[in-house]
Specification:
Number of strands: 22
Strand order of the largest sheet: 5-6-7-8
Radius of gyration: 35 Å
Shape: globular
Helix content: under 10%
Structural class: mainly beta
Length: 305
């Protein structure tokens, strides 16, 4: 190798180590040829090419494209920050519906504030709510109203007023059912509003559930059914003499409820057929606070025993 060739090779090596993201490719003959440098990846340059004895100096390689900032993603053809975008929070098209997006999680966005003085009335049930495909239905215990608003927070209206402390609420396709703690009643009102129908029962603090065309309620140690078609009330079970039923759920075949405060032989989750029959305990649990029965499995939360 001549001195001139060595100088050219030395210059090429120096440039490969200091040209900031560029690679050197040299070319020789077909028998003793050199390989070119690899293409640059994002944010880093390509590697240097190899040197063939006697080969000509190589051409300059191209660097990689710049990388995106953390959280940036392409949604519907536009760059969006999934960490902070309220319309694409955590994933494309995840709308926070008026709430902020922080660290890819939506913050709550309250759109209705219902007045209720928990300190003045610590023994009442407070505010209950239920949802269908388009609306949110909720109880204002202090003002004695059943109200409805769209899920976007529009068209707030009263469905029933002047109630004696409404305390629980469930929905069917056509009606809103509710119980009133102030006068121990159960009633229903059409979803579009109208005159409430009051069931001929005394049900202090009743817990409600609706399934397959029937309302179920638990109160005063009883479990009862009211058919939506004719409002006829049927006693299903009278397991207790006092008020120990804390939660109610129903499906196509059974009605489930929780009992607590009656001792280890009684506390737990019970069931009875939707047409009556013998009741039985499905799970022996103390101080059940809430439960959900689905797919032949009971999920429950319990308080301190």
């Amino acid at each position: 190798m001549t001195k001139a060739a060595r100088a050219c090779v030395l210059a090429a090596l120096l440039c490969a180590s200091s040209c900031g993201g560029r690679s050197i490719r040299t070319e020789g003959d077909s028998a003793n040829g050199a390989t070119g440098g690899s293409a640059g990846t994002s944010l880093t340059g390509g590697s240097a090419g190899t040197i063939a004895e006697g080969g000509a100096s190589g051409s300059v390689g191209t660097g990689g494209s710049a990388g995106r900032e953390p959280g940036i993603w392409i949604c519907n053809g536009f760059e969006e920050n999934l960490l902070t975008s309220p319309l694409h929070c955590g994933s494309c098209d995840m709308d926070c519906r008026g709430g902020a997006c922080n660290a890819a999680l939506c913050s709550p966005a309250p759109f209705i504030v219902a007045p209720f003085d928990f300190e003045a009335r610590p023994g009442t049930h407070g505010v209950a709510l239920a949802l269908d495909e388009t609306h949110v239905y909720f109880v204002e215990a202090d003002t004695g109203r059943i109200r409805r608003v769209t899920k976007s927070g529009l068209d707030l209206r009263d469905l029933a007023t002047g109630l004696a402390e409404p305390c629980d609420i469930v929905l069917s396709d056509a009606f809103v059912y509710f119980s009133t703690c102030g006068d121990d009643g159960i009633a229903r009102v059409p979803k579009e509003g109208g005159a409430p129908y009051v069931f001929p029962v005394v049900a202090p603090g009743a817990r409600l559930a609706f399934a397959d065309g029937a309302l179920f309620f638990a109160a005063d140690g009883t479990v009862q059914r009211a058919d939506e078609a004719d409002a006829r009330v049927t006693l299903l079970a009278r397991p207790y003499a006092v008020w120990p039923l804390w939660k109610l759920q129903a499906d196509a075949s059974l009605v489930y409820w929780s009992a607590r405060g009656l001792g280890p032989e009684v506390d737990g989750i019970w069931s009875v057929g939707r047409n009556g029959g013998g009741s039985g305990r499905m799970a022996a649990l103390r101080n059940v606070l809430d439960f959900v029965f689905t797919d032949f499995t009971v999920y429950a939360t319990t308080g301190k025993t």
